[in-house]
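Budget justification aside, the reviewers requested a transparent look at the raw inputs and outputs of the sequence design task funded under Objective 1. We therefore reproduce one unedited record. The lines immediately below are the structure tokens for a 205-residue chain.
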């Protein structure tokens, strides 16, 4: 009974729920950036690299599920669309845990490039960060509506419109995140990456 009442309240107040969840997310991220949340362990370089690779995998999977979700809803396969988007949202939550752990543990890295490549990287990174922040409320709102309404009820909500905005912002942010990861870790950070793996290789011998 209590669960049913809570779900009805969320269903009747999706914007308020979206606002509360978004604010909580922003507080967590900004608190980590500011270093006022002493809940993260200090990380070694090898761990930072490992988290970077894990984040890239999670982002790639999330982008894939988003593309599949869009494809399925265009075909009218609502159930598959719902499963894909919930999987993508779960992956983004996993990304958030990994990213905040990396950031809070001092896992900051700098690209070993200069000139046009460096500035292109900075622009892509900035767009990625801005879109990540902007997409939070629209993604949360789309998910809240999707979880509290039936497919027929969703036709009378802003789910489709908000969902299109969420997919555009979220998808581009993920794509740019993957590109900047490749540039930072596998194109212009290869030597640093190999050096960070050296202790692991030596330790196994």
């Amino acid at each position: 009974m209590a669960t049913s009442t809570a779900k009805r309240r969320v269903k009747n107040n999706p914007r308020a729920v979206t606002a509360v969840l978004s604010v909580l997310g922003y507080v967590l991220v900004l608190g980590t950036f500011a270093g006022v949340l002493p809940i993260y362990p200090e990380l070694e370089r090898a761990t930072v690299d490992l988290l970077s690779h894990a984040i890239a995998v999670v982002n790639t999977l999330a982008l894939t599920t988003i593309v599949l979700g869009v494809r399925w809803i265009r075909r009218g396969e609502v159930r598959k669309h719902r499963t894909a988007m919930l999987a993508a949202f779960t992956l983004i939550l996993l990304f958030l845990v990994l990213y905040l752990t990396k950031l809070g543990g001092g896992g900051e890295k700098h690209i070993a490039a200069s000139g046009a490549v460096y500035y292109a990287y900075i622009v892509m990174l900035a767009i990625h960060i801005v879109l990540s922040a902007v997409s939070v409320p629209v993604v949360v709102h789309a998910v809240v509506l999707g979880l509290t309404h039936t497919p027929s009820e969703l036709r009378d909500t802003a789910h489709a419109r908000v969902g299109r905005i969420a997919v555009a912002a979220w998808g581009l942010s993920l794509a740019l995140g993957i590109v900047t990861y490749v540039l930072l870790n596998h194109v212009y950070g290869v030597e640093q990456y190999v050096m960070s793996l050296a202790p692991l290789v030596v330790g196994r011998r």
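The CA atoms of residues 22 and 137 lie 6 Å apart. The domain at 10-204 is CATH 1.20.120 (Four Helix Bundle (Hemerythrin (Met), subunit A)). Computational costs for records of this kind are itemized in the attached budget.
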